[in-house]
């Protein structure tokens, strides 16, 4: 099971209004899972859930859960769970233990949809309010977003195949951006760092519908088949279970997004890769998130937008930089409010951080910088 050696702490101040997305505010999390069960498999599903429920009860940060069955359609079920905060849930849902734990459900489930919510307000009687006062944290205020959902996928390819993979991933026709009346692909940015591939996407509307739409596009399917021989994790896209496991492990969720007041349509998109020490991925992501939040209020900062993606010990920071990365102050581009704070970041990295400790920020920036393979925007995005 994935754990965090350093517990993510609740915030000590109200988050900036420039932060439209964050898992680090310490508030409680409500997870809603919509499940469509195969006809006749309801009892099998119930038994699998009971087994899963007993296992989840011991996961750190888990508070409670409920299983509900539709009164109109017995094939439709709803699972809700409550967590102390988002980080422990993400540590569990992104772990190999979770992959094994939910495996019994797949033979009886046709489709699932997972939704995650911070608790902003709640109602209850005076006794319940008094009992829970100071014990449960609520999100202090609603966040104001820009209507864009951000997500990423990451996987590794066999060493020595990087050049061939980059050529395949750069040389394909863009898929149709319109998914349906309410969903549209806005932007796809693909980067590599060594043999690690990161594909970040921006969507307006329904993320799941967009991902399914992209996977069905012939041009995308051809690219996925072409890189199959180079992947370190085998997969068979014609086998739904094999494809599901691969993309479950490849998911790289966005855990924080902040936008500065300044805007520049010519800003360059870059990605920086911060491999974390085992068990410290969330702590590293939180540290970068805190510093990006401070930088958003600094008119000197060249970073206009920053999205932090994290899964296990993989942390990627996607940034839009005014004037380009080469012309930027490396301290500010790295998300360091000041050079003296570099040691704190270095302690969380599972890589040679000597350049960071020695104050050679330009060199460290080059070490973390990912190679841009393709950055595509849809018309009118």
Count up the helices: 13
Structural class, judged by helices and strands?
alpha+beta
Report the strand count: 13
* Percentage of residues in DSSP E strands: 25-35%
Q: What portion of residues is helical?
A: 25-40%
- SSE order, one letter for each helix or strand: EEHEEHHEHEHEEHHHEEHEEHHHHE
Mean pLDDT: 88
Q: Work out the radius of gyration.
A: 21 Å
Question: How far apart are the termini?
Answer: 39 Å
Biggest sheet, open or closed, and with what strands and sense? 9 strands, antiparallel
Could you say which overall geometry the principal axes of the C-alpha atoms support?
A: globular
Low-pLDDT parts are: 1-13
Describe this structure in words.
- This protein is an alpha+beta fold and about 375 residues long.
- Helices cover about 30% and strands about 30% of the residues.
- The protein has 13 helices and 13 strands.
- The strands form two sheets. Strands 1, 6, 7, 8, 9, 10, 11, 12 and 13 form a nine-stranded antiparallel sheet that branches.
- The two termini are about 40 Å apart.
What brief labels describe this structure?
alpha+beta, 9-stranded antiparallel β-sheet, 4-stranded antiparallel β-sheet, 13 helices, disordered N terminus
């Amino acid at each position: 099971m994935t754990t965090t050696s350093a517990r993510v702490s609740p915030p000590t101040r109200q988050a900036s209004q420039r932060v439209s997305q964050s898992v680090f505010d310490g508030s409680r999390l409500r997870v809603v899972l919509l499940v469509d069960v195969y006809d006749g498999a309801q009892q099998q599903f119930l038994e699998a859930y009971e087994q899963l429920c007993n296992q989840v009860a011991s996961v750190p940060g888990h508070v409670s859960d409920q299983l509900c069955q539709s009164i109109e359609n017995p094939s439709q079920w709803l699972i809700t769970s409550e967590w102390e905060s988002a980080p422990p849930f993400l540590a569990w849902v992104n772990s190999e233990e979770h992959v094994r734990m939910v495996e019994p459900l797949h033979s009886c489930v046709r489709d699932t949809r997972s939704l995650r919510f911070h608790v902003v307000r709640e109602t209850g009687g005076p006794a319940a309010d008094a009992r829970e006062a100071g014990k449960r944290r609520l999100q202090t205020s609603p966040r104001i977003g820009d209507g864009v959902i951000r997500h990423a996928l990451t996987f590794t390819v066999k060493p020595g195949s990087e050049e061939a993979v980059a050529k395949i991933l750069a040389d394909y026709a863009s898929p149709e951006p319109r998914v349906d009346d309410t969903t549209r692909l806005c932007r796809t940015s693909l980067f590599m760092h060594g043999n690690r591939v990161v594909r970040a996407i921006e969507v307006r509307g329904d993320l799941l519908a967009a991902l399914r739409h992209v996977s069905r596009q012939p041009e995308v399917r051809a690219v996925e088949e072409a890189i199959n021989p180079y992947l370190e994790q085998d997969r068979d896209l014609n086998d739904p279970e094999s494809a599901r496991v691969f993309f479950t492990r490849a998911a790289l969720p966005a855990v924080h997004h902040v936008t500065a007041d300044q805007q520049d349509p010519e800003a360059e998109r870059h990605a920086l890769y911060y491999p974390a020490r085992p068990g410290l991925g969330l702590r590293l992501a939180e540290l970068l998130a805190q510093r990006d939040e401070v930088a958003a209020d600094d008119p000197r900062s060249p970073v206009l937008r920053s999205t932090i993606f994290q899964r296990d010990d993989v942390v990627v920071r996607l940034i839009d930089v005014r004037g380009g990365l080469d012309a930027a102050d490396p301290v500010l581009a790295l998300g360091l409010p000041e050079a003296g704070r570099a040691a704190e970041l270095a302690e969380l990295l599972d890589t040679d951080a000597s350049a960071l400790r020695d104050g050679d920020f330009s060199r460290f920036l080059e070490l973390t910088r990912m190679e841009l393979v393709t950055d595509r925007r849809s018309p009118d995005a």
